[in-house]
């Protein structure tokens, strides 16, 4: 067993009292507790920071780029970091405080300072995106139920929230659409049975929903996914090439034989499937 670094002397003494055969599971419990404590400490720190930011904003003091990044929840999307637009770690009361502060500010000027894009390149509505020229979109971009044709649409380079094509079923509906380079939250393509020919973003900050595709042969996945990849509709693993960085895991509905192959091929990824699925 690897040398484990205890958070304090008390934990180490308690650990030594545990029988040798039970120490592995005990270590895992200690690790989980430490992670939960770290999250709690960060939540307290963030709430303190938020209250301070609200007071300074109300008194008319200038907010720094770091302050604004925190306010708009725009963080580095590298593996293990915060995602663009993430609300992780914030409760309903804190989120309403964020919204209250933002409602009194010039959003596009703030976002321009944070991102480096000009005001004219920043969009907050779907109509602005459809008009063209938007490179950074703040919020969720949802095309579900949207009637206007989007073939050939050039989407913004970065979307801070989610990109949702839930109601889109045919690849023809997205013909010529240029996807963003980065999406801060979810990419939803849940009802598409094929995404062959689509160039997906290089980074998806949270989850990638591809629940209906039957084959991933030729699919070029993002380099980094900050949450889970939903591939429950996949029928074959032929040609499947998963990303190296998936912070959550990949969910399948494949039989034990295929899952064994994948787990050997991707030992560093969390791969799951339902127990009731049998080999075909």
Characteristics:
12% strand, seven-stranded parallel sheet, 7 helices, alpha/beta, 280 residues, 31% helix
Description:
- Helices cover 31% and strands 12% of the residues.
- α2 (23-58) runs parallel beside α4 (92-103) and α3 packs across α5.
- It has helices at residues 9-16, 23-58, 65-71, 92-103, 107-115, 126-131, 256-265; strands at 122-123, 136-137, 141-142, 158-159, 163-164, 182-183, 187-188, 203-204, 208-209, 224-225, 228-231, 245-246, 249-252, 271-273.
- α6 (126-131) links the parallel β1 and β2 (136-137).
- The model is unreliable at 77-89 (pLDDT under 50).
- A seven-stranded parallel beta sheet has the order 1-2-4-6-8-10-12. The chain has a seven-stranded parallel beta sheet with strand order 3-5-7-9-11-13-14, with helices on one face.
- The longest helix is centred in the N-terminal third of the chain and has 36 residues, at 23-58.
- The radius of gyration is 22 Å and the shape is flat.
- With 280 residues, the protein is an alpha/beta fold.
